[in-house]
Amino acid sequence: MSISFAVLFDMDGTLLQTERLSTPAFQKTFEELRERGLWNKATPDEKELTNVLGMTIEQLWEKLLPGASEEVKVLADERMLENELILLKQGITDLYPGVREVLQELHANGAALFVASNGLERYIDGICEHFGIKPLFTDLYSAGRFGTKSKKDLVAKLIKDYEVKQAVMVGDRHSDVEAGLANGLKTIGCDFGFAKPGELDGADVVIHQFTDLLEHIPYRQYT
Known about the structure:
The chain is an alpha/beta fold. It has helices spanning about 20-35, 45-50, 55-65, 70-90, 100-110, 120-130, 145, 150-160, 175-180, and strands spanning about 5-10, 110-115, 140, 165-170, 185-190, 205. The mean pLDDT is about 95.
């Protein structure tokens, strides 16, 4: 399968207002670990929890559970996922304004859409199912699904697997910009997500709301 033009999206802080979901899920997970006697320190504050979004699973728990055994990290990961999926069904968060409409327009005009995320496979799939956007994507690529160690490796695999000729990477973290640059893609940074000042330096374009995206993607020439 060969694709002439694709748009690759990060999930957390790009499509999904993740902090509304992740913060309570993290808090519940740390509470459960303490109840089981597996962790005796306080839950990191909201800023610390937000800062890890976009990291690989391995990096995330290394940051939040320093010194913990691999068994504890695996359990934390399992509980975090379950807590997120429960909260998702409760309607605790939403996509950013305009996400569904922009994805629909891109899809209708022939652009192949992908998720490229460092999250877990069930997490990414669950979000796309819950919000009814899964049919708009050609595929959902995640570090949890493929065991990649970095976003640039995940994007490289996607491009190779689908023989993508030209693509745009859209995301809110430095890892998204890095992945785009490393793979020769146009990169669009989203500063409405979790980006710190300067984190999106190097992106070709920085947008301030998701609906601005259509101005910077030449998708109509690929229909």
